[in-house]
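User: Structure please.
Assistant: Input sequence and predicted structure:
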Amino acid sequence: AQVKESGGGSVQTGGSLRLSCAVTVTEYPYSIYCMGWFRQVPGKAREAVATAGLADHITYANSVKGRFTLSKDSANNTIYLLMTNLKPEDTAMYYCAVDPIRYDCVSASVDWGQGTQVTVSS
């Protein structure tokens, strides 16, 4: 599948951004078990921010609960991440992930987007 993110940018502390991720299925059969957002800063491992898996149950990282909201448009294979009350520690490259095998977006078959940079200044 092709995964394309958009919506990153630079904001000040307390600001908001909305990320979008559109998935285009390029091979068949292909089932989407999980779609989600991850982020990574240089020198650190990629971490899950929010994922939507079985029955579209959404799991959030503790660090973003109450501030970030993942929403999904299943008909169009698109997910969004509304990020509010942004903090400098949210600065990272944000990646969209699509998993055709597992409900938690961690299989070796995950398709990744190129990433979109989010920078939060104090």
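The longest strand covers residues 17-24.
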